[in-house]
C-alpha cells in the first residue's frame, strides 16, 4: 500500500536540508546561476530528465508514469529578494539578498515531490512536468517560460503550485487556504512625469508649477476607486512615490509620480489604465503643463479553476483533516505570476500557512526577519503528490 505521508516523511529531512542550502545562496531576478545549478544537480542525482529555458535559469523536468496519459505541471518559483537578512539563523544568507518570501521552501518542496513521484512512477499514468521558475518577484519568469515552450512537448493539461508563509489572512498556522476562483490580484505599475516651468519660489506667477499639478493628480487618482469602481469590487490605486524639487525657494521644472494598481476584473483593469491617463492629461493641460506616462501591465489576476480546485480539495482531505482546509472568500491584493500559467491551463494555487518565529514573533513576507516553520513543509509536498496522482489517474 502506497502511503504518501510515510513516503514524504522519509525525505522530510532532505527537503529541509535543501531549503536551508538554497536559503544560503539567494539570487534575484532572471539570473540564478547558483540556484539553477543546485536544482539541476539534485535532478541529476534523482536521474530525472530536464532541459533549461530563459538562458539556463528556468528548469523543466519530466517524469513519465507507467503509461500514456495527461500531463500536470508543478511549479515552484526559485528567486529571492534584494533584502539584507536579519534573522540570525545559522543558515542565513550573507550576500545581501534573502529568501524573504519562502521561495526556497517552494523549490525544496518541489524537489521532494520530484523524488517521491520519480521513485513511484508505477503508481500513476501520464506525465509530471517540474516547472522551476525564476523571476517571480521581478520581472516575471512565467511568461518567458511559456513563450519558450514550457507547457508543450508534452502539452500540459493542468498546473499546480503553492505559497508558504501567511499570505492569506484568516488561515491559521498549519492549515491551507484554497480559492475556487480569483485568488490574487493583477498588478500594474504607473510612472508619470509632470513637466512644468521652473521659477523662483517668490515669483510663482512666472512658473507652471508641477508640484501643484502633481498634488491635484494624486488626489484625483483616488477618486477612480472611490467613485468609479463598484464598492464591493476589489481594486487599488496607490501612489507610492512622488519626487520633485530640490530647494526651498525653487519651483522645479518637473515632478515624478509612481504607483501600483491592483485589480481582479480584467475590464476594470483596462478601464482604470485609461482613466489614469485621462485624469493626468486633463489636470496637466488645465495648468498649462505637459506629461509623460508609462503604464506597464505586469501580472494578470490569479484565477483558479473551480473544477480542478474541487478535485484538489478532495485529495487534500486524504492528507490533512477537512477542518484544516480553509476556503478564501475574497482574493488578496498581492500578485503572483503563477497567474500566467493559470491563464493557459486550468489548475490551482494554494496557501500553506507556516510562518516562522524570529525573536518570538512572526514577520511578514519581504521583511528582513521573515521565516517559515520547517515542521509544516512536509504537508505541502504530500498535498501536491496526492493531488497529482489522483488527477493523473482519473478516467
TrEMBL record:
| Required cofactor names | Mn(2+)
Q: Molecular function (GO) terms listed?
A: metal ion binding; N-acetyldiaminopimelate deacetylase activity
What GO terms in the biological process aspect are recorded for it? diaminopimelate biosynthetic process
Q: Which UniProt keywords apply?
A: Hydrolase, Manganese, Metal-binding
What is the protein name stated in its UniProt record?
Amidohydrolase
| Domain Peptidase M20 dimerisation residue range list | 191-281
Residue positions annotated to bind Mn(2+) are: 101, 103, 137, 163, 366
Output the NCBIfam families linked to this UniProt entry.
amidohydrolases (TIGR01891)
Parts forming coiled coils: none
Q: Which InterPro entries match?
A: Amidohydrolase, Bact_exopeptidase_dim_dom, Peptidase_M20, Peptidase_M20_dimer
The record's listing under SUPFAM superfamilies reads: Bacterial exopeptidase dimerisation domain, Zn-dependent exopeptidases
The record's free-text note on cofactor binding: The Mn(2+) ion enhances activity.
Amino acid at each position: 500500500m502506497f502511503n504518501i505521508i510515510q513516503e514524504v516523511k522519509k525525505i522530510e529531512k532532505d527537503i529541509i536540508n535543501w531549503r536551508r542550502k538554497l536559503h544560503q545562496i539567494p539570487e534575484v531576478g532572471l539570473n540564478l546561476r547558483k540556484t539553477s545549478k543546485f536544482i539541476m544537480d539534485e535532478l541529476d542525482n534523482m536521474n530525472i530528465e530536464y532541459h533549461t529555458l530563459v538562458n539556463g535559469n528556468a528548469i523543466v523536468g519530466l517524469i513519465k508514469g507507467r503509461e500514456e496519459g495527461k500531463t500536470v505541471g508543478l511549479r515552484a518559483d526559485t528567486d529571492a529578494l534584494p533584502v539584507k537578512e536579519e534573522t540570525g539563523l545559522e543558515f542565513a544568507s550573507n550576500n545581501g539578498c534573502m529568501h524573504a518570501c519562502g521561495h526556497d521552501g517552494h523549490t525544496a518542496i518541489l524537489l521532494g515531490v520530484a523524488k517521491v513521484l520519480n521513485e513511484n512512477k508505477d503508481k500513476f499514468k501520464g506525465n509530471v512536468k517540474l516547472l522551476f521558475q525564476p523571476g517571480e518577484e521581478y520581472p516575471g519568469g512565467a511568461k518567458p517560460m511559456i513563450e519558450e515552450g514550457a507547457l508543450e512537448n508534452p502539452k500540459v493539461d493542468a498546473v499546480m503550485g503553492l505559497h508558504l508563509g501567511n499570505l492569506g489572512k484568516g488561515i491559521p498556522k498549519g492549515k491551507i487556504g484554497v480559492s475556487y476562483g480569483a485568488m490574487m490580484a493583477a498588478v500594474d505599475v504607473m510612472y508619470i512625469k509632470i513637466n512644468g516651468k521652473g521659477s523662483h519660489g517668490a515669483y510663482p506667477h512666472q512658473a507652471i508649477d508641477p508640484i501643484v499639478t502633481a498634488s491635484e493628480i494624486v488626489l484625483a487618482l483616488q477618486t477612480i476607486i472611490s467613485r468609479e469602481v463598484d464598492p464591493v469590487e476589489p481594486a487599488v490605486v496607490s501612489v507610492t512615490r512622488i519626487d520633485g524639487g530640490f530647494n526651498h525657494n525653487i519651483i522645479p521644472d518637473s515632478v515624478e509620480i509612481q504607483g501600483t494598481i491592483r485589480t481582479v476584473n480584467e475590464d476594470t483593469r483596462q478601464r482604470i489604465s485609461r482613466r489614469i491617463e485621462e485624469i493626468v492629461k486633463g489636470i496637466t493641460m488645465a495648468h498649462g503643463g505637459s506629461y509623460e506616462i508609462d503604464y506597464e501591465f505586469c501580472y494578470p489576476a490569479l484565477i483558479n479553476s473551480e473544477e480542478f480546485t474541487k478535485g484538489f480539495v478532495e485529495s487534500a482531505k486524504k492528507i490533512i483533516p477537512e477542518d484544516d482546509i480553509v476556503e478564501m472568500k475574497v482574493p488578496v491584493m498581492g500578485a503572483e505570476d503563477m497567474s500566467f500559467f493559470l491563464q493557459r491551463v486550468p489548475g490551482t494555487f494554494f496557501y500553506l500557512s507556516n510562518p516562522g518565529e524570529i525573536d518570538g514573533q512572526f514577520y511578514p513576507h519581504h521583511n528582513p526577519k521573515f521565516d517559515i516553520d520547517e515542521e509544516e513543509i512536509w504537508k505541502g509536498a504530500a498535498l501536491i503528490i496526492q493531488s497529482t496522482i489522483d488527477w493523473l489517474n482519473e478516467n
